[in-house]
Amino acid sequence: MTDPTDPAIRPASAVPAGRPTPADLLIRAAAVHTLVPGEPPRRAVAVTGGRITALAAAPDGLDALIGPGTEVVDAPGSTVLPAFDDTHTHLVLAGHSVHGVPVHRARDLAGFLGLIRERAARTPAGEWIRTTVNWQEILLAEQRMPTTGELDTATAEHPVLVRRGAYNMVLNSAALRLAGITDATEAPPGGVIERDEHGRLTGRLIDRAVELVERVLPRPTLTERIEGLRAASADFAATGIGTVRDCLVPAEDLDVLDAARAEGALAVRVRALVSGFAARTPAQVDALLDRMDDWRAAGRDDDRLRLWGVKFGIDGGFEAGAVEEPYQGQPCYQGRLLWEPDELLAAVERVVGRGRRVGVHAWGDRGLRVLLDVFEQVAERHPGLPPGTLVVEHGGLARPEQRARAIALGIPVTVQHPLLHDGALTQQRAWGEERTAALFPLREWLDEGALITGGSDFPVGPYGAMLSVWGMTTRGTTAGVVGPEHAIGRSEAVALHTVNAARLTGESAVRGGLRPGAFADLTVWPVDPLDPSACPVDALRELRPTRTVVDGLTVHRA
Ligand SMILES: [Zn+2]
Question: Which residue, 414, 406, 401, is CA-closest to 379?
Answer without folding.
Answer: 406
